[in-house]
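Why show two proteins at once? Because comparison is the fastest way to build intuition. When a single record is shown, students tend to memorize it. When two are placed side by side, the eye starts asking what differs. So, the first record is below.
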Amino acid sequence: MEEGGLQEKLIVEKKGSRKEEEEEEEEGGDNEKLSRRLWEENKKLWKVAGPSICTRFSTFGVTVISQAFVGHIGATELAAYALVSTVLIRFSNGILLGMASALETLCGQSYGAKQYHMLGIYLQRSWIILFICSLFILPIFIFTTPLLKLIGQEDSIAEMAGTISKWFIPVMFSYIWAFTLQMYLQSQSKNMIITYLAVLTLVLHISLSWFTTKILGLGLVGVMISVIIVMWIPAFGQLGFVFFGGCPETWKGFSFSAFKDLCSITKVSLSSGVMLCLELWYNTLLVLLTGYMKNAEVALDALSICLNINGWEMMIAFGFMGAAGVRVANELGAGSAKRAKFAIINVVVTSLIIGIILFTFFLILRGKLAYIFTENSEVTRAVADLSPLLSFSILLNSVQPVLSGVAIGAGWQGVVAYVNIACYYFIGIPLGIVLGYVVGFHVKGIWMGMILGVVVQTIVLLYITTRTDWEKQVVLSKERINKWYMKEESKDEES
């Protein structure tokens, strides 16, 4: 679009926004109006955030519950499982979940603009792109042992990790369907089915893991069998819901349009993937750096317990991240800059309040939660020593991922990817290495440096969000929607 045309649209949108504000001001008193708006916004927020948190709790909970069972099998098994779940699974999650999050932008804005038929086409395109991407990731799971030995991990841990990683291959392929369907359903606020499946997954995993390890005595094999079964349940359940009438407006069946213009969708998916990958891999590097320290097994066990607690709490923040993305995308697609800004303030404040409560809770508990994962007193003492850093990380989690969700909803994934690179990899990791290895703070030093990287990133994202012209974002959202819509219409006419 030419500069003049964009400016003209901006003027029209701003006039419309001012008119909307004037109309709202005429309705009752300020307090009554604010209360009503908060009530309505929170209903919309929790309709997405509640099921999203439940689902992410379930997905991460499968990993944590598995680790709890594996931790009582042996120290080597626990360290190896920690490496695979924190490094490989987070690596594949970062790519696949990141690329799937492009649907939050595309589906959310299209749904807000009432172009419902496009959601099913976007979903099918994401399946194709993520499946191809999974084939490229597959060799890492197959050759885990030699790769870990190559980067200097202990032989016993590397061998055990190689065995565990092969069991995770079917799990990785389940993410293709589970992640994309979750984004697709979230954008329409149709995610109660996701909640039901999440609860079923957790209950079944605890039961199956107990049965296979305690009754059948299968040990590690029993835990992994349970993981595979329960990770495919949400995928099949959501597919069944979509295929058999759960989304009549947006799912019109399979279409050859899914194979068209894949390059353009891939670009959007890649920018989303890079943004989230850089975020999820950050903690992965913390684990890898810890693996080079003296007494690596105890350090890895303690750190993995802390990161699992941190990661489980982060599922709340990721739930709000998804909700922020949906709310912002829906309101921008609907053409309301004012409601988009109000949604952002509401979700950030809500998440921060929860973060402060959890910060206090984990600071009081300190190392007591470690007994869920291990009976080793040396490991529990190490966890207690790391607890203040864990609590502070939890507090940061309540703001930073939510701001990333705002970026996803607005379609800024590329910008946030650059912010992540600068803050994480040019500030956080170098500081962590200096504090951990040079200053001699060991694991605490590495974690402190990386926390400082997150602090800088949070400040930058807050600045970007507060300085954004949201009326302009409405216009850009409409241009994006119209571009995809017109492209699809012209292709349908040609065919």
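Second record. Ask yourself what differs from the first in the token line.
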Amino acid sequence: MKNMAQEFSGIIAKNHWNKKYQELTQQALQDPDVQKFIRQHQSQITTTILNNNLDAIYEFVQAKNHKNNFASEYDPFLRLVNQSIQVVYRPNPKLSAQKQQIALEHKFMTLNMASDIRQANLDDYAQGALGRQESYAAALNFVLKYSQNPQQFIPGLYLCGKLGVGKTYLLAAIARELVEHKVTVLLMHFPTFAVQMKNAIQNNSVLSQINQIKAVPILMLDDIGADSLSSWIRDEVLGVILQYRLQEKLPTFFSSNFSMAELQKHLTVNQRGDEETLKAARIMERIRFLSQEIIVSGPNRRFK
């Protein structure tokens, strides 16, 4: 049997790897950042140290040029430790910021909402807004309490007020603040979702879609009461979602043009004109448990 060491030496000699390696390391030594490092440590780095650490210098240049997948996410740096040149890696700030943004977007889920809704923030909501003090304070209070103890049940907010006063914007601003604390939030336009649920009957996906929504840590139902809900949507969709969240004590947010009292009247009369007082009261009982009513007032800012 051949000696493995001799065989490997033969392969190296045949392919002139030593010469090629020398060429590559010499090129690495001419790299501007390597030259700068050597100048900074010229009183400490000897020819012997350089010769003994050519592999580290070569690794640094290769990593800097992103020729290796791992290094593409990190910035390499050279350092001198006990007469040894080492390569250290630090996270690339740009890529780290991009990853953080992607992670936040995954936690800030939206359904049938405007594409720019994730840009909302509480500071912009509060600035120069007459009639928003109470809602702004309530939003800050929720974010503070929930971020400190997410295991404790804290009712969400039921934001009611006229068109254009910023109810949806405030929901989105709260959501953005929460995802900064690594909380998963789903903000959805409920009237559009109700229409989708009717269509979901055809492919038998109603239950699976409800199950995906009902258990999210923070659920925000925008524009509830904006249309006339059928008894089926009210009881078998909205009712099922709210019942689960009540049982699991999961904070839920709402926005509506109706106050809670007005929403109860709205939910009482079904699309056929029949009054279903008890069923509407059951829905409202859950909404009142899951959220705190806050009136949002002020001018219509939608057309400014």
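One difference worth noting in the second protein: Residues 157 and 292 are 5 Å apart (CA to CA).
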